[in-house]
Amino acid sequence: GLAPARRASLPDLTRLREGGRGATRRHRFARNALVVGQTALALVLLIGSGLLLRSYAKLSHVDPGYSTKDLFTFQFAPEQASLTNGEQWAQFHLAFMARLKAIPGVQAVGIVENVPLDEGMSLTQFRTEEQANDPNAMTRLNLTFAGPGYFNTMGIRVLAGREYTSDDVQRTFGNVVISRTAAAKLWPGQDPIGRRLRANSDSTWMTVVGVVNDVEQYNFRDQPQATVYYPLRGPTPTSWRLTSPGYVVKTARAETIAPEIVAAVHEVAPEAPVYRQYTMAFLAQRSMNQLSFTMLTLGIAASLALVLGAVGLYGVLSYIVAERTREIGVRMALGAEASRVRRMVVVQGAQVVGLGAAIGIVVALLSTRALGGLLYGVPALDLLTFAGMSAAMVVVGLLASYMPARRASNVDPIESLRGE
Description:
single chain; six-stranded mixed barrel; four-stranded antiparallel beta sheet
């Protein structure tokens, strides 16, 4: 605002001599350049927010391999002198699972080491029995530990074989469940059920008893994880892998069941803290927070820039119409039609918007690559988004041009020339 204020405060004998017949070419260029810049900036922000919006929509429909609805997760760490070996740990947790199932509204309960979207897994080198004599043969896979009921509770499909039973963590040792991608890496094109594998850090051969669907462990953008699910019982028949496994509870009361679960924990382990209390719906939303926050911020900026661009164009054209009122009156007095006058003003606005949109597209082509880490399923140079947002920008510009054009076409030639 300082530039026009300064210019207006300076004596301008030329304008006075010319009767106020419009601004100089330099001043008009400066005004138009400002609107071009506003239009270009608005379009860059619109394209960026459009790309993020499309990514968010695609992420919202990703199948992570498990359900995120009606699931409550938590952990607790009992510290009791009676829990000294694998069998006692197994009996304790299996009994507590039965206790949870007795809570009204609970449909299923499972246990796992790393709850998806909340905790990561460790990477471990594995070899198959067929590779036992090849010291260089190994496959790097994710490793976690699961117990009975986990896959069913989470809605993870069992593709072949079976999931764990209570026997796998109480009496039988040596069975293992693997994911579909892990099976494809270890035994491509073959049936993995009944085959054996072991971790390089472990001497125990594990027999595959089940193959389950891949899951998104870290966030919805990642590729499915090739995973080996060891039983919670291990690595020897007398040990227990975890002292505080994560529990997953299937219930329609996932949002409100926490107090009852905490009370049940304190009944069997008064000394144990209960932590990591989440619903899977919350974890799913949390995994998308960075994208949604950036999308919201960029969307607000884009909306403000769009409004500023439209107001700027409207203001410039209104000012030009006011400056050219006498000229427009002369044109109409000489027979110019109102539609032609409107078209003249709209075309002038369209030229400014078109130039701004062209610059905005070029800048967006260079800048949207910075969003690559946030985009999902949408390329940084997505033609649909570029075309749609550019069209929206042009439409807004034309609407902003129409009102001054309409006012120009309503100029009364007699009134505009009366001052002469």
